[in-house]
Protein: 13756_t:CDS:1
Amino acid sequence: KWPSRRNKSVNTEASISTQTTPITPFTFNNAQNPTPANVIPPISTQKVTQVNDETVNNTQDVASSTRVNNTQTDKMVDNTQDIMQSVPVASKTLVKPSPRTTTQLNLLSPSETDYQTIHTKFMSHLPAATVKAIFSLEMPDYIVKRHELMKKQIPVPRQTFHGTKHQCDPNRYIVSKGDAKPCGVTNCGLCGIIQDGNRCDKSNHSVWSAIHANTSLYYTLPGPIRAMFVLDILTNLPENNATPHVTQDA
Structure:
């Protein structure tokens, strides 16, 4: 029995909506009953329902899998929170460094620029001398601050030499690489300047220095080892003034 037009219309809509199988020129319900090519055979409603059920089941499986994944993600988040809670948070409090109250001596290497600059200038004035060591001095903070304050008025320092006497063996600073402490003897100019800088009240309220090392050599104590300082002084005197006279601690 050929299907009516109503059934044909219904079945056509069902096949289009499901799109489960392609339409071929001939389909066979069985070998005895061929169907013309221009007639679309009816599709079982039960089959369509089964396809939809499978689709629904698959959708449920996907939804179930999604819930499992979400659960695993939640566990990962919980674990991350546990790790974050177990790690101590570093303090943001900045510790202010203590002010430097003593002078720090640093033994310079002959390969350093400061060493080479001072050595060249010193030897140009005293070519027969032998330089045993050159130290850089990091003075106490109160001296550095005073010097920096004065530099606002006289911005360019002038490098000069200052020879001094000593009551202890200067070689101990070389052996200890600068770790030796000032001797504390009153008349030791070497240790006094290392500890307190060039204080005008220790030398008749003024300090003399010279732009030539050979001039300052005469103010050192004769002996196998002599001590001489290189000073950065602030002065408005012309550069050709050979012996600047410092009247303020700096």
Remarks:
- Confidence is low (pLDDT under 50) at residues 1-52, 62-66.
